Amino acid sequence: MKVFGIAGYSGSGKTTLLEKLIPALTARGLRVSVIKHAHHGFDIDRPGKDSYRHRAAGASEVLLSCNGRWALMHERRDEGEVSLNELLSRLAPCDLVLIEGFKQEPVPKLEVYRAENGKPPLFPARRDIIAIATDSQLATALPILPLNDIAAIADFVMNHLELQER
After folding, report:
1. Which ranges carry the Molybdopterin-guanine dinucleotide biosynthesis protein B (MobB) domain (predicted)?
2. pLDDT by residue, tens only, the chain of 166 residues
């Protein structure tokens, strides 16, 4: 599996970019998975539901299954933060894993940068940022991709990772 990151500050448009990039890549025949890092806790379960009650009772893992999907919830309890490698090992085989967040992980990344956020770009301090998707002018030797040109961004990712269209 090839791994490629999308990095940027909150509100820069990372999720919106992924929402457009995923269908552009799958249309080229790639099987794509996503791992998103949340800086805050989250819960996909609801109090009162059986699976919630099982987790509250102390189950380490609860797997929900229906016709169209399944979801595995793993309680880390006292295990601490999970590593990207551990998360990757949990995924089914695919061509490409796009990761959102995980700024500190040393994988090739595209920075989504918007000047109107009022935050400095990440790329000067991060050697793993290999290109920038933006609607701003930036002084850098890195490739600058138009933020709204999804085909150009998909081409860049595929070329950089040496992925072939199927």
Report:
1. 3-135
2. 999 999 999 999 999 999 999 999 999 999 999 999 876 666 677 788 888 889 888 888 888 888 998 888 888 777 778 889 999 999 999 999 999 988 889 999 999 999 999 999 999 999 999 999 999 999 999 999 999 999 999 999 999 999 999 8
User: Is 18 a domain residue?
Assistant: yes
Nearest to 128 by CA among 106, 101, 143, 145: 106
92-104 pLDDT, tens digit per residue, is 999 999 999 888 8
Does 72 reside within a domain? no
Cα(120)–Cα(153) distance, integer angstroms:
22
CB atoms within 10 A of CB 73: 17
Q: Does 21 fall in a domain?
A: yes
- Strand ranges (DSSP E) for 85-138? 96-100, 109-113, 129-134
Cα–Cα distances (Å) from 107 to 8, 110, 148, 166, in that order, read: 14, 10, 23, 24
Q: How many domains are there within the chain?
A: 1
State the virtual CA torsion across 45, 48, 52, 56 in degrees, nearest 10. Answer: 140
